[in-house]
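re: ur question from earlier - yeah i can do the single chain one, its not a big deal. heres the input i used so u can compare w yours
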Amino acid sequence: MSIEYPQDRWTLSGPNILSDENLNRIREALERGTLIVEHRFYRGSSAPDRLMFEDYDDLLQYLEGKSKPGDSFYVWEYDALCR
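and the output i got, formated as tokens:
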């Protein structure tokens, strides 16, 4: 269950990690190698989760099971970031 706070000015037109465009970009990046994903929780009062994924289905399962509206994500390609 997600609670919306009016002062946060919710919109349906904002970025969505589960959009077809973003999922396609993620799938392409995973074909090149491992991804680092930082999951920041909307009003979660906790530190972000930082995870690594090598498999698209594992990442999709995480996103569909653990994310909620308002959460934000940062995604990096491991090989481009960690040399």
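The chain has one domain: 16-81. not sure if urs matches, ping me
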